[in-house]
Amino acid sequence: MTSVQYSSTGRFIDLVKENSKRGNSVQHPAISINSDGKYFDISYEEYYNIVSHSANHFYDQLKSIDFSAGRNVAFLSASDSHYLWNMLGLMATNVSPVLLSPRNSVEATIHLLKESNSRVLVYQDVFAPMAKGIQKAFPDLVILPKWITKYPECLSPVDHKLLIPLKSQEEELNTVSYTVHSSASTAYPKLVPQLNRVCHNVGYRARNEMLPYDRKELNFFPLFHAGGVMSIVIATNYLMKSTILGPDMTPGSFPSPKMIIELIQELSPKALVIIPLLAKVLVDYCEKAPRSEGWDTLKTVDFVRWGGAEVPKFAVQALFDNGVTPLNNIASTELSLVMSCVPDKNSEYLVPLTPAEGLQYTLKDWGNNIVELVISKDDPCLACVQEKDEDGNFPTKDLFQIISREPLLLSYYSRADDTIIHVNGEKTNPIPMEDTINRCPYIDACAILGTGKQLNTLLVQLKSDEVLKSSLNDVITSIKSFVKTANDSAPSHSRIYDEMIYYLPLNNDKKLPVTIKGNLQRSKCAIMFEEEVKQSVEKMESGNVSDETPGLEGKSSEEGGNTESIVKACLKSSIDKQLENSDSFFNNGMDSLSGMRFRNLLKSKISGLDLKVTDIYDNDTVDKLVEFIEFSKQGKKPNNKPLEDYQKEVDDYIARYIKSLVEQPKVSKVYALIRAKDDAQAKQKLESSFSQRFINISPENSTKIVPLAVKLHEDQLGLSNETYKLILPKLTHVHHVGWTMNFLKGLDYFDDCIAASKNLMKLSVLSRHKVIYNLVSTIGATFPTTSADVTSVPESSLSTKLLNAGTCNGYNLSKLVTETVSQIWSKDYDIPLHIHRVGQISGDTINGSWNITEHIPLLIKGIQVMKIFPDILESTLTWIPANTAADAIVEIGAQDQTSQNGIAHIINPNGYSFNIIYDTLKDYGIGFELVSVQEFIHQLKTNPEYQNADVNPLATLTDFFDTVFLSGHDIILETKLTSQSSTTISNCPALDGNLMTRYLKYWEKQDFIISN
């Protein structure tokens, strides 16, 4: 910012003196204030005189204090005109005020005093008991009452003195002018010091936003927040912009809409600057009041500007409809002005945003056109921030939806920490839902919570005066109608059912916590209401259901309803759709949330029914479910062939993986975490795994391996405290490889695996080193979120929107969930993360060892037994040998994480077809004929000869081949970035006749197949 004009000393406060000398060149006042019931103007010369009187007061009070160890002076007061003069007077003496919000708790205030190392606390009289109480805990803390400005005495000219001598201009530019803090979404806000240089730069950036400088603006922003400092202190002193300060009020008072309308009538401002909550209240007032007492006055201002939070869309639309331009300027404590507003009443978004002039930033992709704004470390307006990414840049945690890329227009989406991440990886943006629900006349405030849960819980804080004037039925009916409206525009996984609404008791001392801007403090709220949320979720998961579900009156087994009619009625209530008896629930709108409610409704209507959500997954049509329920009543299961589990630990390449690790020269120790009853059994299992796969490890490398018996899903991995603490200081890499495989089970079947990943991530967080976390995922994780028209999947993060119901088995979903959660942990805890999406692993290239329990060997055996080959000859294969996959994961996993290698596709980049297998089997002497896929499945399912698992082990996987393998998701997984990161992948050998023959010979040695 080469055009920025700095003060002659480098201190921002000295612009006040310089303005006093050039104030005669402007016709407008510096500021208009109302300290005793009447407004009066203050010129730039008088402005400087008041600041000088304030500075002299503080010089006299503080001159005996040694500030050599720190310049900070804390200031605790409500915002008024006296606040302005106290703040500027302290700055003029060359100490640095720390602006404390009066809404902070005592604990938060003490925390900020400690963090800032403040020597002095200046307080407003109403906070005297708190200040004196704090002083008892900190005897060295000097406490002083706030200076009260006296007019007209303080308007007279006077010189002032400095408590700390000035340095050079360059040194002063890099000195802290004042400190603000975050608005405390948690118990302890964070300090954000503002350098003198940054204050000047902020003023320069805002120069066009504030034009014209003589426009009369009535400003209600509080001075202890960044927005107030920018629009009142910085704009007045850097830009010489005139401001009308909101009238002084009793601490704790809130300007009423009627007062604002009356002030507009009295002062005739051309702009109104207010906090978002006040904007909503003002619109509500104007909508209800006669036009002559509301809109007719408000429309005399050119615009209403707010910042810091979103104003509900209905209020923004109402401003447009009544001739008032709404302006939503996004600013932050760390950066001041971030986004300028481009109001457009014809736009769906009404108040689109564009980055402020000169902003240095990048947009971090969150998928689905959602981006996070990341500010460059070189941005001249960036304050002294603690939270930086690995490149030193500042992630704002503000999410925006891209409306247009040329020109770049954005719509505010939510805070990243407002976004609810459910246990299944789905995301909920609660803000638009809460805005809709808060419009209910009986609701004072509401909060949607659900992070880490499958379900959202709605907390409702009622307006007691409105509720007591109405019947309970009217209140509940109204609230549910607004919840329904919110649900109608929300994703299915975000819906709030009646059972998940928790009403806070009237006159309850425990209220939903909000900031002065009206923003819900979601993190604090989650802590305060943890038990209430837990109970509502547990009730829902255990089968709780609303007594007033419409459409189910008279539908129960006790009232004579038959099972089919009850199932259909409950189904329609759950997904709002009538299905044919053979239609799949999950192909017609049912998801895990509506599936749970469907289960609950059925249990409430069918006496004594024992039904799990997974039973609905397994019986996903009316016909199947009715049959299942009828048999369940008799304590039986339906008379169809039971599904055989296809489960195994991925031992094949885990063993090779360990071999690859210990062969790395930099690796000194490998803790092999193995499910076993004790360490001795763990060692025996590992040695057996090596032996079965002909894996030889040198004695030198063998000493690197420490087998440990674990229970990965338990806290501390089931290890003793001693062992757990022994591992922590030594860790540099964590590899999560093992995972139960079963393509026929629901998501909850994999709870232990997901818990294991969480515990391993926790291990990474607690380690002393910056541990690199490696998650071995699957290409199957990409299937549920990839629509049928997509032909390729890049090496990037996945959406959580499920688009392919046929691939939403529990195995794929569990990997998708774990990928999503791991990326969240990686970001939140700054853990380098590699996700390795592994495709079909074939046997190794050395011995041809390929586990005969896997589905490809079983398919080959089935082909030999049945003497038929399914016509999938042109299907593309990307099988990767087990040893190649292990080497590639070890190679990539040892690298520092970059944008290029964070997600890898561990597949063979050299695709080939089933023709190679077809030809090799023929050459090996195995006879068969080619049949259609449908015929192959038909023979497998219906021919009694082929259903004998002892003869044809493929029979154990009948349903798997029917629903997963032969109807697989035919897409290309990209490997460009993976090949660049791994020479092992780029040099991966393609399957040819020689390698396939090696596999056949291995299976023959195992007496698995017989050559002819």
Provide a descriptive summary of the structure in words:
It is a single chain. The protein is of the alpha/beta class and 1012 residues long. Among the domains are: 341-414, no CATH class; 420-542, ANL, C-terminal domain (GMP Synthetase, Chain A, domain 3, 2-Layer Sandwich), CATH 3.30.300.30; 557-633, ACP-like (Non-ribosomal Peptide Synthetase Peptidyl Carrier Protein, Chain A); 641-710, no CATH class. 36% of the residues lie in helices and 17% in strands. Strand 28, helix 26 (751-766) and strand 29 (772-778) form a beta-alpha-beta unit. Helix 13 packs antiparallel against helix 15 and helix 22 (651-662) packs across helix 29 (882-893). The N and C termini lie far apart (82 Å).
CATH architectural arrangement of the domain at 420-542: 2-Layer Sandwich
The name of the CATH superfamily of the domain at 420-542 reads: ANL, C-terminal domain
The DSSP helix count reads: 35
What's the pLDDT, averaged over the residues? 86
Order of adjacent strands in the largest pleated sheet: 2-1-10-9-11-12-13
Short recap of the structure:
The chain is α/β, with parallel strands linked by helices. It contains 35 helices and 39 strands.
